[in-house]
Amino acid sequence: MNNPAGAEGNDKPLLALRHINMTFGGVKALKDVSFEVRPGEVHCLAGENGSGKSTLIKIITGVYRPETGAEITYDGQAYSHMSPVTAQASGIKVIWQDLALFPEMSVAENIAFETMVGGWPRLVNYGRMRNIATDALARLGVSLDVDLPLKSYAIAQRQIVAIARALVGEARVVFMDEPTASLTQSETDYLLDIVRNLSASGVAVVFVSHRLAEVLEISSRITVLRDGALVGVYPADGMTQSRITELMTGKTFDQQVRAKPKQDRPVVLELEGLTRRGQFEDVSLTVRSGETLGITGLLGAGRTELALSLFGMLHPTAGRMALDGRPISFSSNREAIAAGIAYLSEDRLSLGLVQPQSIADNLVIASLRKIIAGGLISEDRKRSLVKHWIAELGVKIGLQDDAISTLSGGNQQRVAIAKWLATDPKLLILDAPTVGVDVGARAGIFDIVARLAETGLAIILISDEVPEVYFNADRVLHMKKGRIVGEYDPRQASLAEIEEAVYA
């Protein structure tokens, strides 16, 4: 159900921007964009990666200064531009996707450290920090031990700490960038309840998410950007995911079940009774040549731990694994790669890619043996290999030597996939391959997955989003509390049936 708090309350905008333009290196990032937020409203800012969402937020918070002609009005006062100090003092807060928190510091220090910052040295009042943190968490209806280091808590609790920190400065507008990307369904539901409470208390929330079902559930209005331009502002009531997707991309995506019978194909991977105490138990499954096997379930079900065991990063305590009919047991991921197993991590930013390094270096890092000549790396072989896979997967880049961080999330993910395809794997494990990737890029990634399966590659597709495995896998396994508890054929089972089993 939508939250129309802002729409039913004050229709006069708290924050309004008109004629916003921004250019970087001759590229128009924003083109005469207008945007507004009402008091207590939950407003979605939607668009593909590169559509201008982050640029717009950085203009609102004073990180960037818009071009001449911009009009910004906040709480009835006009500005030609915001400064970071003005935005902070006015109660405009941003919770970025990486949260920008300090894992080694306590919860209290993370929430209240800005109150200790000033123009002159002074002693830290830890008692006051604890009180500030406790009060901020109480406003959210949350109780945490504020003396524990932040790293003691899971990502869901860290997200709440980031929200609490925003409230310390008397937030009036809070921008949330992909706040649910790493949360389970139950954690997501809890976070959305917190957003509703913020809205009810008069705090405006601007919600940025690629999960369109959440957008429709929580928002009263949706502003859509495409290629730096405003497409329009729409009421969430009556809107559908497919319609938002069409507005964001300018394209129509027809989701159809891709499942095909693969029972006659040779078995590539076989697991029998595989167990790792405390993480997963008695897992038996097969993956055939050219088959995409989907594994879904809530976070914490043991899916990633199973994948890491197949990749040699964790070691099973019982059971049997076989690849192409031969027993396997890996002591390291190097042995798994040599055997023909590739693993795309769910954490692209810190585990999947090395952000400061070049596109080329990231792509070849797992297949260096292919580009070595005479004991040294051959630049010609390296560039040829990179050129081949960039073309094969349709990655949009400038130069091979550009940092991987210069690419959009979707293109980064294609490079991450290319990195593993360059190793010539027999089995490719994709762990949450669309985290942080927009809807248009998601479709492209799953087209790649389907194409790879057609070449005979065996694929395990792991996702906590049931529609992803339903539409893109040949079979779907439901994993719960470390066990396989259900198997579904998407050609026979309905999406609703699998979602009910997983999310109930």
Keywords:
six-stranded mixed sheet; single chain; disordered N terminus; Rossmann fold; 4 domains; ATP binding; alpha/beta; ATP-binding; nucleotide-binding; repeat; membrane; 504 residues; 18 helices
3D structure, described in words:
The chain has helices at 5-8, 53-60, 84-89, 107-116, 126-139, 155-168, 185-200, 212-218, 241-249, 303-310, 333-339, 348-352, 359-364, 379-392, 409-421, 439-454, 466-472, 495-503; strands at 15-24, 27-37, 42-46, 71-74, 77-79, 92-95, 173-177, 204-208, 221-226, 229-235, 267-276, 280-288, 292-296, 318-323, 326-327, 341-344, 372-373, 376-377, 427-431, 458-463, 475-480, 483-488. It has 504 residues and is an alpha/beta fold. The protein folds into four domains: 1-91 and 172-252, 3-Layer(aba) Sandwich (Rossmann fold), CATH 3.40.50.300; 101-171, no CATH class; 265-340 and 426-504, P-loop containing nucleotide triphosphate hydrolases (Rossmann fold, 3-Layer(aba) Sandwich), CATH 3.40.50; 349-424, no CATH class. It is globular.
Give a quick summary of the entry.
With 504 residues, the protein is of the alpha/beta class. It has helices spanning 5-8, 53-60, 84-89, 107-116, 126-139, 155-168, 185-200, 212-218, 241-249, 303-310, 333-339, 348-352, 359-364, 379-392, 409-421, 439-454, 466-472, 495-503, and strands at residues 15-24, 27-37, 42-46, 71-74, 77-79, 92-95, 173-177, 204-208, 221-226, 229-235, 267-276, 280-288, 292-296, 318-323, 326-327, 341-344, 372-373, 376-377, 427-431, 458-463, 475-480, 483-488.
